[in-house]
Input
Amino acid sequence: MNAAISSAEDRMKKTVQSLKDSFAGIRTGRASASLFDKIRVDYYGEKSPLNQVANISVPEARLIVIQPWDKNLIGEIEKAIRSSELSLNPSNDGKVIRISIPPLTEERRKELVKLAKSQAEQGRVAVRNIRRDGNEDLKKLLKDGEVTEDEESRYSEELQKLTDSYIGRINQVLEEKEKEIMDN
Output
């Protein structure tokens, strides 16, 4: 396989993974530790990921319990959660932080689906941009005499098939997320 195609495929894989990661941060009505993946806590002057300074567990479908390894962090963790875009209200008993996940309203579900669709479209645009870059690389290889016109045409078709495949994956990931949001 051509290096330009291989490079494009790697970039497309990363685009789909990035979309999955961003979808993990979209709150559904169900409790999930992955909601807190992007939350950073001020830990002795360093911004540390929440999961590196506390244990996050989900004992019930709508409850998350966060147990900091250092009790002095409870206030910082609460502050970080409140200031995040998750719209959650943590409470603590001095040892652990409990967060009750309220059920989503129909209106909020539709907003979250709209957000997911927007992120998926950004992913599709990124994949198409990768295809464009790959085609430009192929044209440069043709111009430099490193590939023949037939090879360039074949590689371009391969790149298009790859693009279609990854856009299909993005659509599938979006469909799963929409179902998850609307079914809870």
